[in-house]
Structure formats: structure tokens, C-alpha cells
Amino acid sequence: MLDDNVVFEIQKWKPSQQFSYGTAGFRAHANLLPPVVFRCGILAAARALSIPCVCVGLMITASHNPSEDNGVKIIEPDGSMLSEKWETIASKLVNLDNPRQILEELCVEEDVALKNKSVRPTVYVGYDSRESSEPLSRLAQQAVKLMGLKYKCFGKVTTPQLHYFVKVANEGVQANKENYFQRIAMGWDTLSQYAFTNTLENENIFRIVDCANGVGSEAMQGLIEYTKIKNVLCVNTGDGELNKHCGADFIQKNVIFPIISDSSKIESIPSNALVHFCSLDGDADRLIYFIAEKSESDSWCSLTGQRVRVLEGDRLSVLAALVIKKFLDVLHGGNLSVGVIQTAYANGASTAFLKDLGEPIQVECVSTGVKHLERAARRYDIGIFWEANGHGTILFSESAKSFLREIIESTAKHTKKAALCLLALSSIANQATGDAISNFILAEALLKVMGWQDLTSWESLYQDLPNIYKALHVQNKEIIQTVDQERTVIAPESVSRVIKDLSESQPSYRFLIRPSGTENVVRIYGEGPSLQTLIHLMQQIENVVLQACGTPKA
Ligand code: G16
């Protein structure tokens, strides 16, 4: 059943260390990755052969990680993240000395026929702007070919674009950038026509998009071209280093103004302009808005390193929920269920605000990783999900879309408008995964629907609870174990005891301690009413975590 040559070839590509399929695939220093990527090419082909489909996807990216890292992840035919069952298979296939046994199991249990299968699916391949990405993608393509399948390489694309291509190709639609941008532009045009309260574009609003020196800068150009949105200035478009002192992850974690390597592009903005600042991450799946203030005599680049006010991903959920509720109220709800999915990193003030919105909004908390949020969101007619780090989207079920189409065809003018606007949101929001490019237009559209010209109205909806976030470099992050959507630490005992004691003595504070699935760090997060007290409590947590996990050798 198995061709010996195929097994022999795969066996030659053996990683020098153990890897596990983490929060978003395999990630490490790019030098360590060639065998991992090759075997992921095999895995992608096997996954495609195991289900009737047109294609699956394979993306080479390490997203928010430094430029010397890279990574690989597989995309399911419906555009979602690899299923949990296949994540386990992936880890086995990558790590085993001899992959024969696992391949034989796949042939039997998953019906992966390596030969003679009449339908031959394709593996769609894409990669980000890192130096190591294109060479790694060639290894994946080589592996797909070895399995007797074809690949289609899209070259440099954002991660969400590849998710989108895979999804629509399996729905019988042509997958290309033109179609991707046209859908977004269609939604934007509909909202411009029916929903924007200030229909005339305010020439005084300037949108500055920090592209993290990543693959998102090209996609932003496409977006501007198709939507014709005015006054968008893209900075950090590739002159500087990827994700270094800029980009969504940097801004959200450090809460300071980025380095802008091409700041001359924005220095001529009028001093009385209303500025919307936002940052993409390295592969453009996360978007973070922030507010920076400067005096008239300052230049924008003089703000580098100064504190900003960050509007985290939770704020996008809140904005989306407000607008969706506004339209649904016109339709008297239509019995559509609406869920907002968060993780334990969501600021408690956002959760309280969302819960206060009442019917039909329901709020859920799941573990970190967009795959968990996406799965939970799909259980609702309209599923809004965002991680605090800016990763998210709004998913509309097929039945919700049919319901809206029926209204458009059959009812009065004002209900028709509300249904058209909701459908427009489903056209802008990437229906496969969180997407910073489409979310930029989405956020700008939602702000316009609310009639808000600057970001402070959005910010003043509620006040975030003071919070502290830290990434601790340790020797062994894996000894930290959690349950209850990562909200409770169960091991090691020393850490779990300290958290339990603090939570009992300080019930208005809460803490989150978990090993990262993308970096070699333990992430610690805390929030509560007083920053001073929080600083003190977080120090105790940092000490016990470092003691338990060990500080890294110099
Ligand atoms: C990835 C995942 C996100 C997750 C983030 C951080 O983002 O897609 O869902 O929140 O990693 O995960 P962790 O805390 O486990 O390191 P990206 O943008 O890096 O692909």
C-alpha cells in the first residue's frame, strides 16, 4: 500500500528536536524548520486525501514572532484551523523517527490512499514576507508532489487571504485576490449607501496604518484601491525590520507608540486632523487601534516610545455587538442567536459591558487560540469573536444569511435596509478567520455607522480595568498546567497555591498564567481595581512562576 520510496524520503527529513503543533501550528527559529515544513507538506497532502475536497491550505508564517523565526500551519477545506484530531497526527508525523507506522495508520483509519484515488485535491500554499519563507514553501511543495498531489502557490499573501482562498475554492468560487477585495468593497459600498450617518466623507479624518513591515502592506494597497477609502496612509511598509518596535503585538503588549521607519509620509497631516491609528501584525491577521496625542509643535515620530491608549480586540467585539444589535432591533431580533466569544485575556470591563447589552447577545469565554474562538462562534447565527490581541472576525451562519435575504426580498423599506447592512457586514468580515485587512474596513465602517468621527467616543464606552501583562522567559514553560479555559492553574502546586491564596485574599483581582503556544515564554496577566496593588500582586506571581519554571541559562 505504501510506496517504499515515499517512506524513505520522508524519513530523511527528521527534525533535530521535538515539536508540537501549538496555538497556531509549528513555530521556531527558521533554521530548525526545513524538516518540519517538509513533513507538514506530507501532512497537508494526507489531510486533503482524507476528505472529499477541492483543496486544503499550507501557510508559511510566524506572524507576530521576530523575523528570524518562522512557522507552518495547515488550513482545513472550510478555511478554518486544522482540526484537533489532525493536530495530534501532525505532532506524531513530524517527530517520529520512522513515519511508516503513522502513514499506514492514516491509510487505514483516515482512508488516505496514497495512490489511485480518482479525485486529486490540491494543496494551496502561501507565505509571508520573511526571508526564510519562500525557500521553506518550496520544501512543502516538494513534499506535496512526492505524495502525488498538485500544489498551487499564491506567493506572498496574508494568512487570512490564504484561509479565504481555501474556503471559497471549496465552495466553487474562483480564489484570487481580486475576488477577495471585491467582496470587501461590495460590503463597504452597501454600508456607505444605507448606513453611514455622516454620508459625506469627513476630509479631516486620517487613518494611519502601521503595517509592521510585513506582508500586510501590499494587501492594504489592494484594499485602498478597491474600496476607494480616502485618507489612508500606510507606514512601516517594509523599510524597517518585521514586527520590531512596531505592529499589533508590540503595541498591545508594550502600550507605546511604534518606531515609524518612513515617518515623512505622515508629517504633513494637518495638526487639527482626527487621526485613527492602527497596527497590523506580521501576517495581517491581527489589528489593534490606539490613540496617541501630540502637541502642535511635535512631529509624529517624536512620539516613538511614549505611552498610547490601546483599544484592544475586546473593543472591536463591543463595537460589532453594538452595531449588530442596532440593526437586529429594527428586525425585532428575527430569532437570530448572537454570541460574543472572548478569552480570559479580555478586560473584565468589556465582558461586563457586553453582558449588559442583554438579549440577544450572549457572552462566552474559551481558551486562547483563534481556533477555539472560531469553533465556539460557529454555534451561533451570528458569532462575534475577538482575542484581546486583535485577532477576530464576525461569522454569519448560512441560515442567518438566508433569513436576511428573505427580508430583503419581501419587506418594508427600513427593515430591508437593516438586513442589507447586516449582509454587508458578512461580506466585509472574513468568513474563514480573523483578518486585519478586512477588519480595518470593518472597524472604519462600524465607527461610521455609530456616527463617531474620532476614536474617543469608542474609548469612552467604558473604562478598562487596570491590568498588567508580562511574558516571562523560563527554562520549562510546559510544567504550567491549567483548566477552566486557562482560568485556573492546577500545576505546579507552588504556583497554583499562590494564585489561590491571592484570589481568596483579593477577590476583586483575577490572574491568568499560561504557557505560550507560539513562543518560549509563560504569559502572566492580571487585572483589578488598583494598579498599585496589582503591581505588588503580579510581582509575587512573577517570582513564584520563575522559581517553578526556572530562569533561562544566560
Ligand atoms: C497566534 C494565534 C492566536 C493567539 C496568539 C498567541 O496568533 O493565532 O490565536 O492568541 O498566537 O498565542 P500564545 O499566547 O499561545 O503564544 P498569531 O497572530 O501569532 O498567529
Write a structural description.
By secondary structure, the chain is α/β, with parallel strands linked by helices. The protein folds into four domains: 4-173, Alpha-D-Glucose-1,6-Bisphosphate, subunit A, domain 3 (Alpha-D-Glucose-1,6-Bisphosphate, Chain A, domain 3), CATH 3.40.120; 180-311, Alpha-D-Glucose-1,6-Bisphosphate, subunit A, domain 3 (Alpha-D-Glucose-1,6-Bisphosphate, Chain A, domain 3, 3-Layer(aba) Sandwich); 313-432, Alpha-D-Glucose-1,6-Bisphosphate, Chain A, domain 3, CATH 3.40.120; 467-549, 2-Layer Sandwich (TATA-Binding Protein). Helices cover 41% and strands 19% of the residues. It has helices at 4-12, 34-50, 84-95, 100-109, 133-146, 159-170, 177-194, 216-227, 248-254, 313-330, 348-356, 370-377, 398-410, 413-428, 436-450, 456-459, 493-505, 531-549; strands at 26-29, 55-60, 69-75, 122-127, 150-156, 205-210, 232-235, 274-280, 287-291, 309-311, 338-343, 361-366, 382-386, 392-396, 467-473, 481-483, 488-491, 510-515, 521-527. A five-stranded mixed beta sheet has the order 1-3-2-4-5, with helices on both faces. Strand 2 (55-60) and strand 3 form a beta hairpin. The longest helix is centred in the last third of the chain and has 19 residues, at 531-549. The model has no long low-confidence stretch (mean pLDDT 94). 1,6-di-O-phosphono-alpha-D-glucopyranose binds at residues 23-24, 63-64, 281, 285-286, 368-370, 387, 389, 391, 516-519, 523. 1,6-di-O-phosphono-alpha-D-glucopyranose is lined by residues 23-24, 63-64, 281, 285-286, 368-370, 387, 389, 391, 516-519, 523. It comes from Galdieria sulphuraria (Red alga). Its EC number is 5.4.2.3. This is phosphoacetylglucosamine mutase. InterPro entries: A-D-PHexomutase_a/b/a-I, A-D-PHexomutase_a/b/a-I/II/III, A-D-PHexomutase_C, A-D-PHexomutase_C_sf, A-D-PHexomutase_CS, AMG1_III. Pathway: Nucleotide-sugar biosynthesis; UDP-N-acetyl-alpha-D-glucosamine biosynthesis; N-acetyl-alpha-D-glucosamine 1-phosphate from alpha-D-glucosamine 6-phosphate (route I): step 2/2.
